[in-house]
Design goal:
single chain, 117 residues, mainly beta, Jelly Rolls, 6-stranded mixed sheet, 0% helix, 44% strand, globular
């Protein structure tokens, strides 16, 4: 589990979500005190759509939607890509998992940039 809440006001580059081969959900990332800014998706990522599941207690996860009731998602293109996100969409998120629409064909590390609140 990565922990980011010690980085108030700083940009942190090296939080990593791991999505194992055969899985559609990543490891749990502790986002307490931070907000997600950028997701770096490697070419080895098998999916074409990435969504988010969030939790306040690290046990029960919910599909993540913004204030307009829209699923927060990324349409993933081929190759290595970085996707910027609206930081306000992730304020108050304590725990997060990345969710792919397809199972991974190999273990994939997805790097995340967060900013302390």
């Amino acid at each position: 589990m990565s922990k980011a809440n010690a980085y108030t006001g700083l940009v942190v580059v090296n939080l990593t979500a791991v999505m194992l081969s055969g899985q559609t959900e990543s490891s749990i990332i502790n986002f307490t005190g931070t907000s997600l800014k950028v997701v770096y998706i490697p070419a080895s990522f098998a999916g074409t759509l990435l969504t988010f599941a969030v939790s306040y207690d690290r046990t029960t996860f919910y599909e993540y939607r913004n204030i307009s009731n829209e699923t927060v998602s990324i349409d993933v293109g081929a190759g290595n890509n970085a996707y910027g996100l609206a930081a306000q969409d992730f304020y108050g998120v304590n725990y997060l998992k990345l969710v792919s629409n397809l199972a991974q064909t190999e273990d994939v590390n997805i790097n995340l940039v967060v900013r302390g609140l």
